[in-house]
Amino acid sequence: MKFLAARRRSPLAAVAMLLIALIGIGAGYAVIANARPAEAAAVASTETQVEQGKRLYLEGCASCHGMQSQGTSQGPTLVGVGAASVDFQVGSGRMPMAAPGSQAVARDPAQYTDDQIAAMAAYVASLAPGPAIPTAEDVNFESADAAQGGVLFRTNCSQCHQAAGQGGALTQGKWAPSLMQAEPKEIYEAMITGPQSMPVFSNATIPTQDKQAIIKYIDTLQTLPDPGGLALGRLGPVPETVFLWTAVFAALIGVAIWIGIKAR
Amino acid sequence: MTATSPVEQVGGGVATYVDQRTGSNKFLARNLGKVFPDHWSFMLGEIALYSFIVVLLTGTFLTLFFKPSMAEVLYDGSYVPLKGIKMSEAYSSTLDISFDVRGGLLLRQMHHWAALIFIAAMSVHMFRVFFTGAFRKPREFNWIIGVALVTLGLGAGFSGYSLPDDLLSGTGLQIARGIMQSIPVIGTWMAFLLFDGEFPGTEFISRLYGVHILLIPGLILALVTIHLMLVWTQKHTQFPGPGRTNDNVVGYPLMPVYMAKAGGFFFVVFGVIALIGGLVTINPIWIFGPFMPDQVSAGSQPDWYIGWLDGALRTMPNIESSLFGFTISWNILIPAVVIPGIIFTALALYPFLEAWVTGDKKEHHLLDRPRNAPTRTGIGVMALTFYLLLWVGGGNDIIAITFGLSINSIIWFLRIALIILPPIMFIVTRRICLSLQRRDRDKLLHGYESGRILRLPHGEFIEVHQPINAKEMAVITGKTDIAPLPLPAATDADGVRNKHFQVKKLRAKLSGFFYSENVALPTAAEIEAGQHHAAHDAAIEAPLHAYEDADQLNRAHGGVLHHPGMPLTNAEQLAEDGGHL
Q1: ipTM
Q2: What CATH number did the domain enclosing A208 receive?
Q3: DSSP per-residue letters across B347-370
Q4: Does residue B231 sit within a domain?
Q5: For residue B474, is it within any domain?
Q6: Which of B160, B170, B154, B113 is nearest to B300 (CA)?
Q7: The domain containing residue A91 runs over which residues?
Q8: What's this model's pTM, rounded to 2 decimal places?
Q9: Which 3 state secondary structure label does DSSP give B491?
Q10: Is A196 on the interface with B (CB under 8 A)?
């Protein structure tokens, strides 16, 4: 212990202690946060999927959506929203909401396992008919036309999600999220269920084929390189302005000052 | 004949050859030695000039490939996500420039960045001229030319932004047309005339093209020429400093010093533009898509210089009224026509307004330090605050989503701040300027505070003041004090009514508003006395330096180094100084 004792009054000792403490707390939190309740698998075998879903619903959702899913002042009714809604909202981590706010925030990872989400979706679907979770075939966009999807995207989506799918502001602190991380199934579900402020784009408005084209275009945007260099978030003039008045002008005025100083 | 190098022989030969045919030697001898004063802020206008040259060069390249036509074509270029889509020829040729013309994207991005820098540099240059009072007699015309250049710059920029016919430019044009239509009586007719019918029509891009590549650049070139000729004949203003007066110019000659500096700076500006043109995306039109009147993108913004107008539109409450069955859209008319109209008129007329208010008819070649014109500086900061708040309003949606705010809260904050903040900034700025003037006066009268505290033998503590150096003295005393105009008499000595009494009274009051609180420079005698005082401090401190050579540590005195024979107590000190300090 002589090594430590000799150094405990060093000015760096406090910094080192702080670092060790922070790492310790961070590691401890990471372990606790990732520890999922392990009870689901044990109980699942003795109850049906819908029963499991109802149990999970009563535990985690009923306080806002009501014991009969009839809706309360805190949350809307879930009768008729369909399995796709549950899969989208819970699967993207938006539900259950951590705190009341202008809009549910997507969280990664989701708060429930895939089996639990499927159970809750089955329960909500059992209440009344509603949009079903899209099949792998529904969201298969391989053969779709990206250019046509681009036209549909700019006509139907870009006024909120921005032409590059970077998201945009809505009223009262709400927003249309960025689509840069969105998966095909999520996009499809969002279109058929209309989460948060989004309108429903049913198959009567946008047929499945067109939905696949839109998904293909979003996928294209997600993987598109930026031939012009640094993309500045693909947000257009506002970040360009910020870049101009900070980096570019700092450089030019810096050089002007340098030339001015040399003269004295 | 003395021996000359071959270079000199050839140079001399060429110069003589040209001179015999053009008489150039006399002209060059007179002008190459012209002296320019030196200050970094005098180079802001140069940035504007150089970036304009880059805009012209890159723009010329773009005209070789751009097709200003709204004819509909099916895209068949190499950008796959738009293949087979209907679009205008203008948009498709811009895509070709970006993807299929060698070096096209680099030059297009350089053109756009250089245009943004051009207007930004003009604006900052204008702030410099305003805050230093460089617009005063005899440079009022050049100020107006400058305001015209900024206005033309906005026109050049907006017309260029609108040409590619992408989703952003079409959205911008739609707003521009809406603004036109908001003008009572003539608005609708004007919009129909310019667009040749309904929006978007088929003519507008080709009409705008002529404006963008011929009319506006031609006007800018002509005005820049006059602007620079006036600077040449009127000579450049200079900041106050040693040897600088209202009647001379202290600096370096054009040849070789400024040739090298300005030439070098041109290449730096060119290099910076080329660098960001190659490394940083600007206006990625392929992502925005072709313009369709039924489409719009969230986060649609104009380029930075139109941002304040967009902000005014976004911030204005939604007010409309109906007059004789016609709708008057105040919500568009006021922010997009009335406010810019007032701002640009006030900007152009400011030199005349200030000269009238202050009654100042003298020529000014020596610049004001902003603190020495507190009311003008206050007005400038007030206007700048108003402008910046509108500017923030233009990006309100991006700010809302970036910082997790409510767009409604931002709009309401701006509505209130636009009325409250500018006057507050005026008062604060003016007070700061006046305080700085007082500080300057203190420096003249008492020297500057050296930060060294001295304890005198009898116990008093003083801070040693030191006289300011000659350069600072020249800078501070370079100020000209202008007395506010006296209040006019209502009647003259014979009791005849003064016909212009009301106007003159207003003028005297405004003049007082400008100058009554000004902190006048102390007289030469006062300065002399003040410097003497500082010298006295130094004299008191002088014996201390002797302690630096002390050879003995006196324990009784708390460890002070002490010379043998120097006084140890107050009594000894008093005795030595003959009873007084």
Answers
A1: 0.87
A2: 1.10.760.10
A3: HHHHHHHHHHHHT--S---BPPPG
A4: yes
A5: no
A6: B170
A7: 48-127
A8: 0.87
A9: strand
A10: no
